[in-house]
Amino acid sequence: MVKIAPSILSADFSNLIADIKKVEVAGCELLHIDVMDGHFVPNITLGPPIIKSLKGKTNMIFDVHLMIENPDKYIKDFVEAGADIITVHSEASVHLHRTIQYIKSFNVKAAVALNPATPLKDIEYILDDLDMVLIMTVNPGFGGQDFIMSMVKKIADLKRMIDSKNLKIDIQVDGGIKPSNVHLVADAGANVIVAGSAIFNSDNIEETVKAIRTNASK
């Protein structure tokens, strides 16, 4: 069964708590929190104080996606703010194994994200240490982009890699996912679905979440 992680990048920040409550009531398991620094990606979003202000307002898992340079400098801050899962980018981490071990030293789950052009071999030798791999299905930085179809094969290749090692690792996908294409990534092996604009910009959040879950299971 898939888990759904709405991205608050597409939420109404003037009514953030209300929007979060809507996706929680709709049954979403994770809250995907995109952190951007304006350097690693061409956008700036939010930091630990915002995350800390949300902690306790929802029972959802805080899935913090760090799209930032030098992530090691800020990991402790995000853990203390309330992160349950921390995802770092392979492309932004000089010593990726060390970064993963540092995240896990705080007893939170560790994940690695790969941009569309980044090959799976970049995580081959740390796969055993991961709780989740995030395959970016758009180039990171902005919400509302179109899904990159070639990422379906990448997801399937990752699934085979994980299965060949008999590992239990979540495969998360992020970018351009909506009810009409979620079956493609789910069939390829993804089980954690990030959706931002498709959920928060819909007329009926509960129905959209239900459609994503249903279509992913077909």
TrEMBL record:
<feature type="binding site">
    <location>
        <begin position="174"/>
        <end position="176"/>
    </location>
    <ligand>
        <name>substrate</name>
    </ligand>
</feature>
<keyword id="KW-0464">Manganese</keyword>
<feature type="binding site">
    <location>
        <position position="174"/>
    </location>
    <ligand>
        <name>a divalent metal cation</name>
    </ligand>
</feature>
<dbReference type="InterPro" id="IPR011060">
    <property type="entry name" value="RibuloseP-bd_barrel"/>
</dbReference>
<feature type="active site" description="Proton acceptor">
    <location>
        <position position="34"/>
    </location>
</feature>
<feature type="binding site">
    <location>
        <position position="176"/>
    </location>
    <ligand>
        <name>substrate</name>
    </ligand>
</feature>
<feature type="active site" description="Proton donor">
    <location>
        <position position="174"/>
    </location>
</feature>
<feature type="binding site">
    <location>
        <position position="7"/>
    </location>
    <ligand>
        <name>substrate</name>
    </ligand>
</feature>
<dbReference type="Pfam" id="PF00834">
    <property type="entry name" value="Ribul_P_3_epim"/>
</dbReference>
<keyword id="KW-0862">Zinc</keyword>
<feature type="binding site">
    <location>
        <begin position="196"/>
        <end position="197"/>
    </location>
    <ligand>
        <name>substrate</name>
    </ligand>
</feature>
<dbReference type="GO" id="GO:0019323">
    <property type="term" value="P:pentose catabolic process"/>
</dbReference>
<keyword id="KW-0119">Carbohydrate metabolism</keyword>
<comment type="function">
    <text>Catalyzes the reversible epimerization of D-ribulose 5-phosphate to D-xylulose 5-phosphate.</text>
</comment>
<comment type="pathway">
    <text>Carbohydrate degradation.</text>
</comment>
<dbReference type="GO" id="GO:0005737">
    <property type="term" value="C:cytoplasm"/>
</dbReference>
<dbReference type="InterPro" id="IPR026019">
    <property type="entry name" value="Ribul_P_3_epim"/>
</dbReference>
<dbReference type="InterPro" id="IPR000056">
    <property type="entry name" value="Ribul_P_3_epim-like"/>
</dbReference>
<protein>
    <recommendedName>
        <fullName>Ribulose-phosphate 3-epimerase</fullName>
        <ecNumber>5.1.3.1</ecNumber>
    </recommendedName>
</protein>
<feature type="binding site">
    <location>
        <position position="32"/>
    </location>
    <ligand>
        <name>a divalent metal cation</name>
    </ligand>
</feature>
<comment type="similarity">
    <text>Belongs to the ribulose-phosphate 3-epimerase family.</text>
</comment>
<feature type="binding site">
    <location>
        <position position="65"/>
    </location>
    <ligand>
        <name>substrate</name>
    </ligand>
</feature>
<keyword id="KW-0479">Metal-binding</keyword>
<dbReference type="GO" id="GO:0046872">
    <property type="term" value="F:metal ion binding"/>
</dbReference>
<dbReference type="GO" id="GO:0004750">
    <property type="term" value="F:D-ribulose-phosphate 3-epimerase activity"/>
</dbReference>
<keyword id="KW-0413">Isomerase</keyword>
<dbReference type="InterPro" id="IPR013785">
    <property type="entry name" value="Aldolase_TIM"/>
</dbReference>
<keyword id="KW-0170">Cobalt</keyword>
<dbReference type="GO" id="GO:0006098">
    <property type="term" value="P:pentose-phosphate shunt"/>
</dbReference>
<feature type="binding site">
    <location>
        <position position="65"/>
    </location>
    <ligand>
        <name>a divalent metal cation</name>
    </ligand>
</feature>
<feature type="binding site">
    <location>
        <position position="34"/>
    </location>
    <ligand>
        <name>a divalent metal cation</name>
    </ligand>
</feature>
<feature type="binding site">
    <location>
        <begin position="141"/>
        <end position="144"/>
    </location>
    <ligand>
        <name>substrate</name>
    </ligand>
</feature>
